[in-house]
Design a protein that fits this description.
The protein contains 15 helices and 23 strands. By secondary structure, it is of the alpha/beta class.
């Protein structure tokens, strides 16, 4: 196993794939010459070590890009982290569209040059995994092992086609409150109605939130759009929209936001109009169950898959293992005609030009510039520092600056051109890679991805988290220690890439695993019964 990784040939640091002891000697290429570098102090796993002397104010290069500058001179072999490195990012910037040439994503799903080398993602190993998750096909409700294997070979999954030409990967009944005042009622209805679940219906779920009233302007508009998006989501075989009656976003106000929708799968209930809202709600859910239970999973082309891309609780291996692996998945799904959505705008700061220059045309470039600058202005309006982002967990895991975080984060986008830019609350309409305006907060961003139309979210993490979202949220660990310790949280271990396993084999395994999830396999958070949602709060509360 390789003990360290130099990601790009121009880097002046290496990343420790395991803790490197003080006095340990490594051999690496520095400016075209192979030389020995002795660690002058312990370098924790996922952290950076200088492989050449860097003068005070000199840039630290990782992924082939500057991730900041040192605040004092650093010798080769020193640990580089927050104690001696500061961000090089500033305020609002002017951008120039410099489109990169399109690179074929056929065969091995070749990548654009975006700072991370293919061999780096594979930990410079070349050894392949013996067997994969794809070889162990679980039985899912209504789909045999043979049928599931056949679907993977044909690049289809077993889903639920919907009348609007989308497909669900679940057939759940959702209770969507229009306002936080009826959250407890929604939970009570779902709890009582679950005893009536039958056929292909999997569960009745209530999605609580504190909004829908005492909001103004754009803040209230965002709530209405997110609720409308979820009401129309294809993973729901039926939806009960539960209102109070006096709220700003009451049922009659919310209905126009739905646009055209399948009226047979949506019911409305206003609690103030009922004698017993829980009993009436359960009766409406029983009607939805009766109708949805007749549906059966059918083979659906993967071009109907929309997958959200998100990371959180990152570490120094995120940009080396899990994020490039998800980038490979994204490229392959897009090659098959599918769609991926990348969000977390603040975690694009410092790597935004990579995405901008992959925009398919100048109009999309302009929309991406606006998305980035709008979010920076959002920070400024609230008197916050734009570039103060890495969390304590990120820093403990080896991420030192926002550039460091962002260059690893954007690896999830693979190499495909950007085909769409979505505002918060927009639904995806263009196949391929889309960028979505939403914050880095795990629950808010994952909910935004679901609202945009993602049936599944891929969530990479180096620290671990049990949270869920409105759709199956696949937790992908960046390191094997986390996968071993939190097997009840982690669905797929990308940490083996740092241990010599091959990227090609693991990318195939991940793609097959996602098709299994799309065909009904439950992820850990679903097995635990977790279902979360969160809306982006941006305005005053009355």
């Amino acid at each position: 196993m390789q003990n360290f990784l130099k990601i790009n040939e121009n880097d002046n640091v290496v990343v420790a794939l395991r803790a490197i002891s003080a006095g340990e000697c490594i051999s690496t290429e520095v400016q075209g010459v192979v030389r020995e570098v002795v660690a002058l102090e312990e370098i924790p796993q996922g952290h950076k070590m200088a492989i050449q002397d860097i003068p005070e104010g000199g840039g630290v290069i990782k992924y082939g890009y500057a991730i900041g500058s040192v605040i004092r001179s650093v010798r080769a072999g020193e640990w580089i982290h927050t104690h001696n490195l500061k961000t090089g990012l500033g305020d609002l910037l002017e951008y120039t569209y410099e489109p990169v040439p399109e690179v074929s994503v056929t065969g091995n799903i070749s990548r654009r040059s975006s700072g991370s080398e293919e061999k780096g993602s594979q930990a410079e190993s070349g050894s392949e995994e013996k067997g994969s998750l794809a070889e162990s096909v679980p039985r899912v409700e209504g789909v045999s092992q043979a049928e599931s294997a056949s679907a993977r070979e044909k690049n289809t999954f077993w889903g639920f086609p919907r009348p609007d030409n989308r497909a669900g990967v679940r057939n759940e009944i959702w209770v969507i409150p229009t306002v936080g005042c009826v959250n407890s009622v929604a939970q009570a209805i779902a709890g009582k109605a679950n005893v009536y679940v039958k056929g292909s219906v999997e569960e009745v779920i209530a999605f609580s939130h504190p909004y829908g009233c005492s909001q103004m302007g754009e803040d209230q508009e965002y709530t209405r759009r997110i609720l409308a998006d979820l009401i129309r989501h294809p993973n729901a075989g039926g939806v009960l929209v539960l209102g109070l009656g006096c709220e700003n976003s009451n049922i009659q106000v919310l209905k126009p936001y739905l646009g055209q929708y399948d009226e047979s799968r949506v019911r409305f209930l206003q609690a103030q109009d009922c004698e017993n809202e829980i009993a009436e709600g359960v009766e409406l859910i029983k009607e939805l169950i009766e109708q949805a239970s007749r549906l059966r999973r059918e083979p659906v082309s993967v071009d109907k898959l929309v997958v959200g891309l998100k990371c959180g609780g990152s570490d120094g291996l995120s940009g080396i293992t899990a994020n490039p692996l998800v980038g490979r998945f994204s490229d392959r799904l897009i090659l098959e005609g599918g769609t991926t959505i990348l969000t977390e705008v603040p975690e694009m700061f410092g790597a935004e030009t990579i995405l901008m220059n992959r925009c398919a045309d100048r109009e999309l470039f302009g929309q991406t510039v606006d998305m980035i600058n709008d979010f920076k202005n959002y920070y400024k309006r609230h008197g916050q520092t734009i570039y103060e982002n890495p969390s304590p967990g990120n820093k403990e895991g080896g991420i030192s600056t926002l550039e460091d975080k962002s260059l690893g984060c954007t690896q999830k986008s693979g190499s495909a051109p950007v085909k769409g830019v979505l505002q918060y609350g927009d639904r995806v309409s263009v196949p391929g890679l889309n960028l979505l305006s939403a914050p880095g907060n795990d629950l808010v961003a994952a909910t935004a991805l679901a609202a945009a139309g993602a049936q599944i979210v891929l969530f990479t993490t180096g620290r671990g988290t049990p949270f869920a979202s409105p759709v199956p949220t696949v937790k992908i660990s960046t390191n094997s220690a986390l996968a071993g310790k939190k097997a009840n949280w982690i669905d797929f271990n990308a940490g083996v890439l740092a241990e010599g396993r091959g990227m090609e084999e693991q990318s195939k395994a991940l793609f097959d695993y996602v098709l299994e999830v799309a065909s009904g396999k439950k992820v850990c958070s679903e097995e635990a019964g977790f279902h979360d949602m969160a809306i982006f709060k941006q305005g005053v509360t009355l």
